[in-house]
């Protein structure tokens, strides 16, 4: 899932060489080529366009598929012409270039036909756009590594057909610098896919290694020792940080990004089905750091310090934005990221609603919801550092037709309605080599100072020669640098707010503890307590807890089922769950446990290591929560229902003392016709269906036979349920 920036009023991008002397040019060319092959630095010098603005394009999650050829066709027909109009400095494609899935979506491995389609589509896009192929950077996503045992091996089609592969950018970290008159803009791409690519669905997370983090740290600091121009740092990758595991030394990508105070991390992976506000602000905070390593409840991190230090050399806030973008697969999404004098902004385009003849991107002031940080307030308070940054409203305009006029309008929402308080014609600012139209309008920015970050709203309208009007999205801004609070939906919080890699084991052992408690505590009460935990005991006190306890105690009275479930849980903890095929074509199977897949190490012959953690959580946790836990309560419910039915029969026969409890049992239709049992049968069928679907998915995903490769996993729960249903059919 990322995007970056690009400069206004420029010539074609070219590789920059900063020679100490003319005699050193040849030597540096050789060195630069070597660094490119190693994934080191590619330094691009832009022609100096107006106001030192740069812009780049980000695309993500293309998922080209043999089963959905329209994805590639739309990509060629839409993206090629749009890139020609936008003319960016870089095009960043952040992973999942191909789909790697069968038509039923259950088998996940590489398909060379899809890679040939991707290569052909990219060649067509490069040709139609008129851009240099060298400015395209594509990264692996998890789909691009399904079933790839070795990077660079025969089934690693990314190395052969991707643009990075064709240009010999073989490193896991690649960087490129866009330089303007006053700024350097450093973009660093990182590939955190599994070194050993498992098949899906157990290939879901990014897995940065200590070596990758060290290389990333080095690339982000490459300009730090050189005085002069400020450096804007923007890393881009596929996985959001919530879906990125820790390294072997328990370090994270977030640690590196915070250390360097990058402006934004651009990523993909999650798609728009989880929401359109998949954004997260990260900041160092000593007070709540330990909690927010696991869960962040709000999109915006709480500021740790309200004081502003404007002295030269003062350490800026350690913070950054994480911006996940939508997918091409279904949403046909594209992002343009612009950097204007250090201010980073973006616009997300949705081509499902049609092509755009004109695109307007306000570059200043910034959106107070998604783009402002603590450093924004520092820039405002310390304007002596950027004297001309606040004096104009600025925007980039891309159009297929000549632009006749551009107007900025500002609205005041304080009265409860949007009252226009400013309307000004913007002036075009263009250099000789500019490749887009850049507009600016002077304003009295101090008139818009306000403690409310969403009082004032900005909109820019452009009218082209065909008299077509295009307006930018209305967005709030805060000239003071105060961030407007925006909340996630529950789905957005679910995928962005949790650090899943660190939560897997706590969640796993909490569920296992709950399962063991539901089995062992009632058994201990039954053995050591003198109380008679019967249906009459439940009726006497009633209450939800008493009812659950009674149901679990009744399960203990069916020792075969109780022992079977306990033994099955212990089996899942200490034994392999199944033997599966995790690579594209390899006759050797490997086994899975809750700790991952036990794969023979390619570096140390004969030694096995567990990989795919926390990725295996997508198999482990649903089985525990949606199969085993319901089975415990349903089997206990069957036994408890039989006990009630026995009471009903005895009360009718007159063999039971007639009291209030017996009268209720005797007169209730629920007991006489065994409606409770019928409801439990429906629930049992739902468990059967859920388990059947899981087994079918596993068979397809890892090419397994349930009777040979996972008999215990496949048969234990169905047999225990069937035995319980049979044993409780009569009293």
UniProtKB/TrEMBL annotation:
In alphabetical order, the GO MF annotations are: hydrolase activity
InterPro entries referenced in this protein's UniProt entry, alphabetically: Calcineurin-like_PHP, Ig_TMM62, Metallo-depent_PP-like, TMEM62_C
Which positions fall inside the TMEM62 C-terminal domain? 505-711
Signal peptide residues are 1-24
Instruction: Note whether Hydrolase occurs among the keywords.
Output: no
Which parts of the sequence belong to the TMEM62 Ig-like domain?
Answer: 356-482
Q: Which residues form the Calcineurin-like phosphoesterase domain?
A: 56-272
Superkingdom of the source species: Eukaryota
Chain ranges passing through the membrane:
503-528, 549-579, 616-640, 675-692, 707-726
Task: Could you list this entry's UniProt keywords, alphabetically sorted.
Answer: Membrane, Signal, Transmembrane, Transmembrane helix
This protein is called what?
Calcineurin-like phosphoesterase domain-containing protein
Its source organism is Linum trigynum
């Amino acid at each position: 899932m990322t995007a970056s920036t690009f400069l206004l009023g420029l010539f074609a991008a070219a590789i920059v060489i900063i020679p100490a002397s003319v005699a050193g040019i040849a030597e540096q060319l050789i060195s630069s080529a070597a660094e490119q092959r190693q994934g080191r630095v590619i330094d691009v010098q832009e022609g100096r366009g107006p106001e030192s603005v740069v812009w780049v394009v980000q695309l993500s999650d293309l998922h080209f598929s043999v089963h959905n050829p329209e994805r590639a066709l739309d990509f060629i027909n839409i993206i090629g012409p749009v890139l020609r109009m936008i003319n960016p400095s870089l095009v960043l494609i952040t992973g999942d270039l191909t789909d790697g899935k069968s038509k039923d979506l259950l088998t996940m491995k590489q398909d060379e036909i899809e890679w040939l389609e991707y290569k052909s589509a990219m060649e067509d896009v490069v040709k139609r756009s008129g851009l240099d192929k060298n400015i395209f950077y594509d990264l692996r996503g998890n789909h691009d590594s399904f079933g790839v045992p070795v990077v660079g091996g025969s089934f690693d089609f990314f190395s052969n057909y991707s643009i990075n592969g064709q240009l010999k950018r073989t490193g896991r970290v690649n960087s490129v610098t866009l330089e303007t008159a006053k700024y350097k803009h450093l973009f660093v791409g990182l590939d955190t896919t599994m070194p050993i690519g498992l098949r899906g669905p157990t290939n879901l997370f990014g897995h940065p290694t200590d070596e990758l983090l060290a290389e990333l740290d080095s690339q982000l600091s490459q300009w730090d020792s050189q005085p002069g121009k400020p450096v804007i740092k923007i890393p881009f990758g596929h996985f959001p940080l919530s879906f990125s595991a820790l390294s072997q030394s328990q370090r994270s990508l977030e640690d590196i990004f915070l250390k360097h105070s990058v402006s934004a991390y651009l990523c993909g992976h999650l798609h728009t089905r989880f929401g359109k506000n998949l954004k997260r602000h990260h900041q160092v905070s000593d007070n709540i750091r330990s909690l927010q390593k696991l869960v962040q409840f709000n999109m915006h991190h709480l500021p740790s310090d309200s004081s502003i230090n404007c002295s030269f050399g003062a350490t800026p806030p350690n913070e950054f934005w994480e911006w996940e973008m939508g997918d091409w697969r279904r949403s046909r999404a594209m992002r343009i990221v612009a950097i204007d004098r250090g201010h980073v902004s973006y616009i997300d385009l949705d081509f499902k609603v049609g092509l755009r003849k004109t695109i307007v991107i306000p570059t200043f002031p910034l959106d107070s919801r998604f783009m402002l940080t603590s450093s924004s307030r520092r820039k405002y308070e310390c304007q002596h550092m950027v004297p001309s940054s606040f004096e104009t409203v600025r925007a980039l305009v891309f159009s297929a037709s000549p632009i006749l006029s551009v107007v900025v309008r500002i609205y005041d929402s304080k009265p409860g309605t949007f009252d226009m308080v400013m309307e000004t014609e913007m002036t075009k600012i263009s250099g000789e080599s500019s490749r887009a139209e850049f507009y600016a309008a002077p304003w009295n920015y101090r008139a818009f100072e306000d403690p409310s970050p969403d009082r004032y709203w900005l909109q820019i309208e452009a009218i082209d020669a065909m008299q077509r009007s295009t307006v930018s999205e209305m967005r709030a801004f805060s000239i003071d640098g105060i961030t407007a609070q925006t909340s996630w939906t529950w789905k957005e919080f679910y995928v962005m707010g949790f650090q899943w890699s660190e939560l897997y084991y706590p969640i796993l052992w909490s569920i296992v503890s709950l399962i063991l408690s539901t089995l062992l505590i009632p058994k201990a009460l039954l053995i050591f307590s003198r109380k008679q935990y019967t249906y009459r005991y439940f009726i006497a006190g009633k209450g939800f807890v008493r009812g659950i306890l009674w149901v679990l105690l009744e399960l203990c009275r069916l020792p075969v089922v109780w022992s079977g479930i306990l033994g099955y849980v212990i089996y899942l903890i200490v034994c392999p769950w199944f033997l599966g095929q995790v690579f594209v074509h390899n006759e050797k199977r490997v086994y899975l446990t809750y700790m991952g897949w036990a794969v023979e190490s390619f570096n140390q012959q004969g030694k096995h290591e567990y990989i795919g953690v926390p990725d295996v959580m997508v198999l482990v946790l649903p089985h525990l929560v949606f199969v085993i836990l319901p089975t415990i309560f349903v089997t206990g419910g069957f036994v408890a229902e039989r006990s009630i039915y026995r009471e009903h029969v005895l009360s009718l026969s007159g063999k039971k003392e007639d009291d209030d409890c017996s009268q209720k049992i005797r007169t209730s239709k629920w007991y006489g016709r065994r409606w409770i049992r019928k409801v439990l049968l429906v629930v049992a069928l739902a468990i059967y269906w859920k388990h059947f679907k899981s087994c079918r998915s596993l068979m397809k995903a890892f090419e397994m036979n349930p009777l040979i490769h996972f008999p215990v996993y496949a048969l234990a729960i169905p047999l225990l349920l069937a035995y319980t249903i049979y044993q409780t059919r009569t009293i």
